[in-house]
Design a protein that fits this description.
3 strands, GIY-YIG endonuclease, single chain, globular, alpha+beta, three-stranded antiparallel sheet, 4 helices, about 90 residues
């Protein structure tokens, strides 16, 4: 399985969209590299949305589609399944 996921910070001011084949592991990697990258710079700790795909091609296509959307459409997508933008716990 492949996952497209969205992280945000406490104030929901930044969204980070990426793809992985192991969501649990990837979230751990983000926390280990916390201060060294985009995720650390903006304190993106909160998983608020993800989708599952069977092929990497589908996941990458969806990731690109989401990244190219305006912020309002991204917000609406997240709110449709996670209205309070609560952190999703995986694993």
């Amino acid at each position: 399985m492949y996952f497209v996921y969205i992280l945000t910070n406490q104030s929901h001011s930044v969204l980070y969209i990426w793809v992985t084949n192991n969501l649990w592991r990837r979230l751990g990697e983000h926390s280990l590299q916390y201060e060294k990258n985009f995720v650390g710079k903006y304190k993106l700790k909160k998983l608020i949305y993800y989708e599952e795909y069977k092929s990497i091609q589908e996941a990458i296509q969806r990731e690109k589609q989401l990244k190219n959307r305006h912020r309002e459409r991204k917000n609406n997508l997240i709110s449709a399944v996670n209205p309070e933008w609560k952190e999703i716990i995986v694993g």
